[in-house]
Amino acid sequence: MDPAAFARAVQAGDWPAAERAVAALLRADPGNPALHYNRGLVLRRLGRPADAVAAHDAALARAPGHANAAFERAACLLDLGRLDAAEAGFTGYLAQVPGDADARLNRARIRLRLGRPGEALVDLDGLAEAEPAVRLARAEALRDLRRLDEAEALLAARPGDGPELRAAALKLLSQGAVGRVRLAAR
Fold first, then answer.
1. Of 20, 101, 108, 123, which one's alpha carbon is 20 to 30 angstroms from that of 145?
2. Helix 163-174 and helix 132-144: axis angle, to 10°?
3. Which pTM does this prediction carry?
4. 186 pLDDT more than 70
5. CATH number of 1-98: 3.40.1400.10, 1.20.120.80, 1.25.40.10, 3.10.20.30?
6. From CA 28, how far away is CA 9, in angstroms rounded?
């Protein structure tokens, strides 16, 4: 029951030790929503998203307005591939924290995977297109809406684009139901 042991384990990235420490803290204070939330974070780091969902559920049962637990629960559902539940989770979170760019981007990505690019574009509106993840998601939505010229323009090379981003852009434009890559045959 040593909070410092939990903090040391987290700082060291020793997730098994962090799990043991937070479990001991929970035995001493089982009603503490912050401990359930932190347990969920640790379980996700350990690659146990289903257990993390249960921990975040426990946090939310004790503190229904715990916005961070709602966000992390939705992220774990996304990890599990439960897209409809993850979308609902991010929607609920965004009702509490409307301006959260990460939640909007996550929900946009989910909506792209669910075949709803128009709704994804709404989530992406106003997000910084300088961010590579936002640019790629917006271009994917435009591609899926058959607005290929806009997608290509958005993905045109910019100073500072690394090779990973260029590869992702090429893949995005060449895949999907309506992707295209212009080839210059000489």
1. 101
2. 10
3. 0.88
4. no
5. 1.25.40.10
6. 18
Q: How far apart, in Å, do the first and last CA atoms of the chain sit?
A: 72
> What string of H, E and C letters represents the secondary structure of the chain?
CCHHHHHHHHHHCCHHHHHHHHHHHHHHCCCCHHHHHHHHHHHHHCCCHHHHHHHHHHHHHHCCCCHHHHHHHHHHHHHCCCHHHHHHHHHHHHHHCCCCHHHHHHHHHHHHHCCCHHHHHHHHCCCCCCCHHHHHHHHHHHHHCCCHHHHHHHCCCCCCCCHHHHHHHHHHHHCCCCCCCCCCCC
Q: What is the predicted pLDDT for the residue at 183?
A: 47
Please write the tens of the pLDDT for every residue from 122-162: 999 999 988 999 999 999 999 999 999 999 999 988 888 88
Model pLDDT, residue 34 = 96
- Amino acid letter, 95: A
List all residues 6 or more positions away from 175 whose beta carbon is below 8 Å from its beta carbon: none
Choose the CATH number for 100-179 among 1.10.287, 1.10.10, 1.25.40, 4.10.860.
1.25.40
Residue 184 has pLDDT above 70, yes or no: no
